[in-house]
Amino acid sequence: MTFHPQPQAGEARPWAFPAPERGTLDNGLTVLRCHRPGQQVVAVEIILEAPLDAEPAGLDGVATIMARALSEGTDKHSAEEFAAALERCGATLDAHADHPGVRVSLEVPASRLPKALALLAEALRAPAFADAEVDRLVRNRLDEIPHELANPQRRAAMQLSKELFPATLRMSRPRQGTAETVARIDSSAVRAFYEAHVRPAAATAVVVGDYTGTDLSAVLADTLGAWTGGSAERRPATPVTADDAGRVVIVDRPGAVQTQLLIGRVGPDRHDRVWPAQVLGTYCLGGTLTSRLDRVLREEKGYTYGVRAFGQVLRSTSPTSPEGATGASMLAISGSVDTPNTGPALEDLWTVLRTLAEGGLTDAERDVAVQNLVGVAPLKFEMAASVAGTLADQVEQQLPDDFQAEFYARMARTGTVEATSAVVSAFPLDRLVTVLVGDAAQIEGPVRALGIGEVTVVAN
């Protein structure tokens, strides 16, 4: 029997995160473009400086409703006509609001890019914000809230934010608003928020893909360049303060067969020099199936299907900005365990953290993490959307255009001792707020016996 010759690996080629070209249109819109030959689906990200803490008092969620309403009709198209026009282009358009601002995302075949950009520009320039459409979006959002409250992961995240941040800080409240605040939103509130914060001078467009044969400069000038608006001053960022004194909050769900764990605190953002080492160390702790937390809680004890440790940037500002560095990230450990083993699982989790602090990471753990995080980066960024999303993150977080490329290089140079120090500092045993969503009658006693902090029970 003759077999086909076994394929052999080719010679490794150097790779670096693509560098964008930066420019500005006549209307003040900043543009980052990145030509990626072969990427026939072009990704466009629009970053609007409309942060959640700019929402008027009592109208939490108006940024989300505004973002969703951008594609629900314009001065030229009804909502149905706009959706049909997008479909004829083979394009998808999405928008969401988060603490740094509003993001509008477009993906379209390269051959239809001019038509899709014209529709995107139309949505940004002249959204209709029709009463009927805004009312429908408000009702949809109100329908979503009970489902979010019923979801243990979402409920834990809401409680952790409430515990960590003072009530005066927007980060303490749900990103998309509560039933009380969303119910107050109408088309006039949405339009007022739009007029106050959406303008080209306070926005950035990121375009990534293969635009061979397209005069992208001319297309941008004819579409997004026709969007007009006044000048904009950067909105000063409110300093992030948090209380991460060690304590436990149980959100009571009588009869729950599982307990949702969310353990977190506030840490540095991506401007801090410790960030690459922190990412590496956190990955070793709980970033994959072979991490320490999974190895103990999942493989050895069988308490859970998986536990993850992660760092998520909430808001980031450059240390050189007028208000100085006011950014923050959420450092957290998340997972679920069966109710009877909630106490033992937490005890073992604390043992993992204690052992890490005492003995440190191994060189083997560090090497695997570098290979998984740095070695697979070319695969992660094969698609134009992933490149565009990362560049948009850099814009939102006021990072230099070469940050991602430097980040991988710095992480590859990070040693085991440095990664250990970073992850131990990220998860100190006495500075972790633990939120448990589960049956308080079954888990309160065992959790109190652990002595990991004052225990409080709140209603669901």
TrEMBL record:
- Domain annotation Peptidase M16 N-terminal: ranges: 34-165
**Domain of life (superkingdom):** Bacteria
Instruction: List each copy of the Peptidase M16 C-terminal domain by range.
Output: 186-373
List the Gene Ontology MF annotations in alphabetical order.
Answer: metal ion binding
Q: Which InterPro entries match?
A: Metalloenz_LuxS/M16, MPP/UQCRC_Complex, Pept_M16_N, Peptidase_M16_C
Membrane-crossing residues?
none
Q: Spell out the SUPFAM superfamilies in the cross-references.
A: LuxS/MPP-like metallohydrolase (SSF63411)
* Region Disordered: start-end pairs: 1-20
Q: Which PANTHER family match?
A: METALLOPROTEASE, PROCESSING PROTEASE
Q: What is this protein called?
A: Peptidase M16
The species this protein belongs to is Streptomyces venezuelae
